[in-house]
């Protein structure tokens, strides 16, 4: 353990092993660059509506998107998130975000070549709400995520909320995707 | 406050709750719809497609089986959880169950899980619920990504946590397995805590759950009610148990082990990730929002908090707390870290060896400090095992974050285990259950593994205890011998798969394991290569819906050993009741096919250790046969107070269509005709033939018209025999020398337990006249003869013929009768009235 002399040079962000459990969902933490590079498309869009379907026994909620901008790839006109009600069957998956009709988001999307389903990259990590400010600018934000987050080596890492000026985010995404190395 | 008899437990809100018709209605499995109250989990036959270097699908399955066993082992829950092998996800299944599937998940998503419910609640007055129809755990098919590899404790605990969700549990804030990421302290050695046990038991309570205690009350916020505040009962050095408040602020915490507790109410953190509760129209019922946090009766100062005494089977009522609304939650997501390997590895919660002298741990969390300072922050432990030294709260800044170094001191005479931390500022209180785990040892390690040539292995390491477990990937080895002093053990490894390289991990019961310090370079064992095991025959290979039957399975390439084999039929419509190992490649299993089973051709799979074989679509469910007899192979000793189905025992068995009007049923056991003492369409009473050897015996019934499928009855070992009862002064108890109230009795039993074995007193009880007495000592006499000592200090029954039965792990001895007198030697009977108004003569259940 840490000696009292040594302690101050060690920070609690050191990787943690051994004794943690997952949340309802288990996530790998992705940086903005990783989000951008792993996404097959990135759009700014407003949620126009939603409906559900059952795919391989899983209920998915399809959120249809009214695309305002496409930052990467071919714009997908809907994103699917697991969970929802279809007929008399209702599925709940804690940790899965719910989108609000009429709200504006930046969505980092990933289409599975195996299933054809368009997902959010990293669940809530790939979803930023866009809020217009009084000065006409816009902020893209996501809240701190309470789910279990691991780094690429499987060690637990902390999350924190993300807030970016929308134009800065767009620039960041363009830089990241112009030099993208897909994970 | 007031004490009241325990009422029926009401759901707490860390379940999936619906507000319907003024009631709180949870989502849960309908036990009546489950065979043997058992929900079965299956792994998709389409397993992961990518593994890390030493990982295998067999190892993945072994960890998932272990996770199933965790939830199956909650003794206060009526829900049983089983592993059903591999499944084809297209197999039609009508019985509720659980699926573990591996999918092409998007980058950044490693797994998720939750229940699928019918949108329509089952109505039943106060016991309404929304039935879970199916439940699923989705994992990434690429196990090169976290939480893989599967031998990591992380993978196992992920499975346990996700399975908890799928059984109906949401997040809690007590450091239990179902806690959010920042407040959890469970490990493979202690995979569920009191809060998890309470949560599952509230949904599926059995009689034992009522023996725990409860606390209820109301939390207000200003002049209104606090909705969705978390209320926690916590005791020093022990577990925390919690509940969330109702819309009217009321709460009820059930499942609290008896003891002294503090109670506090706190707001949910912003990242609590609680789903619902939902109103009848499907909308989410809003919480009352952020507030302060207070100990009962309404203080942030632990010294002013009132401890409460929780008693078995009682409810402490009116434990009310008044909170104040705030604009935000000032402190949350706190965690404490300890460091190992020359400070290169951090472990959370902080495991601290209190024998290593003073220690420093590091706390982090939202609101604890900023810019390298933490003005007004105070930190203290609940209880006296550990303390923060004077000047020992030292904030600092690193990489843009603020951390709090905590210098600890210890009371070496106090207990170890989980220690709770209380963080407070002038404006806020935050309690972190189990932030520090005190130990008296450093983490264990594994140094080497060497084959001994006889199938056993010698493993060496450090910091082991007598009860250290040595795991090969996800399965424990059989300990032949273990010396903590020399750090050496001889073990029998679980049966390995061809070419498997298993990671060896040492687990101590204090929660530490060797991966704390050896995650990067674990010791592994290579099993060598062998032919892949296969299933060669299944007979019968089809059964009708509603059947109870024995199925024989023959295989090649396995090395079965009793207790290590799992058989699954790939559908929740079939439950395996019991597996009998007849040889290294021969099994017989009792199976039950649900009456409403879907017609299907499910997979059949056999798993032994890490060995696994699957017969794809190897079994068939055919249409039900109306009127066909079915013997449910659960045999019970019919004599009051006795257990076991040994040769000569009088037993009952239930079933359907066991008799046909106007005919006589016939029955054989192991081929021997048996006289049926009593018979009805649903129950038979018969005596097991004397002289039958122990082990499985076939039971064949003809109901007078049709033969039922054969099932297996396990002939138990003969029960122990009481050979002598003496008083503590050496007087043999007999017709002229009664045992007297208050006396010590030494009971000698033949055939009780092997002389070389070790017994704990908690394993044995003695019933005298129907009154249970704990064993005070268990002493080997010779051979398998032992002496059990008790004191007649209970509410004794007096008379000339009081039945004495000694139980060992619930198994009864043969009974004897002795006279039991009052202390003055008289026999006047005692009128005993139970709390339910009965005469108190009910047979005790050990």
Give a structural overview.
The complex is a heterodimer of chains A (183) and B (846). Chain A is mostly beta strands and 183 residues long. Chain A has a single domain, classed as OB fold (Dihydrolipoamide Acetyltransferase, E2P) (Beta Barrel). Chain A is built from 2 helices and 12 strands, in the order βαβββββββββββα. In chain A, strand 7 (104-111) and strand 8 (118-120) form a beta hairpin. In chain A, helix 1 packs across helix 2 (166-178). Chain B has 6 domains: 17-169, Collagenase (Catalytic Domain); 332-439, Immunoglobulin-like (Sandwich); 445-526, Sandwich (Immunoglobulin-like); 534-617, Immunoglobulins (Immunoglobulin-like); 630-715, Sandwich (Immunoglobulin-like); 721-821, Sandwich (Immunoglobulin-like), CATH 2.60.40. In chain B, helix 1 (57-72) links the parallel strand 4 and strand 5. Chain B is globular and about 85 Å long. The model of chain B is unreliable at 1-11 and 832-846 (pLDDT under 50). The interface between A and B is large, with 77 and 98 residues. Strand 1 (25-28) of chain A pairs antiparallel with strand 7 (109-118) of chain B, so a sheet runs across the interface.
